[in-house]
Amino acid sequence: MTKIFIGxxxxxxxxxxxxxxxxxxxxxxxxxxxADSYQETDDYNDFATKVSKSVRESLGSYGILLCGxxxxxxxxxxxxxxxxxxxxxxxxxxxxxxxxxxxxILCLSADFQELEEMKNIAKTFLNTEFLNEERLVRRxxxxxxxxx
Length: 148
Description:
Radius of gyration: 14 Å
Strand content: 15-25%
């Protein structure tokens, strides 16, 4: 059973809970890393950090993060070595993110995406395999190089 770590700030809180239920109903093991309650002053950084560390430490797992735009939470997640977080605004982008980038965290926008859309995007992301071609492996390995 595939393990999914999920997290969201206050703007993604409601949709996170409903998306987690959907994933559980579809056979995924879901670990909810918060927020546990609606707190308007929470920071997306905390949830991105928790999910990123958990995905990195649990081989073969994935993460799903939600915030208002999906941008901040993806930026924070990508600061962790070994994490490849993508903003999945539609199923095509989610599929390419898995096939080409071997993405292990999907970031969703609570403000700009409806729940049904999120379900379809998450389903596509979680059911798509990395193509594992030499050029893709080489490029993905370079993602963990230090910046200048």
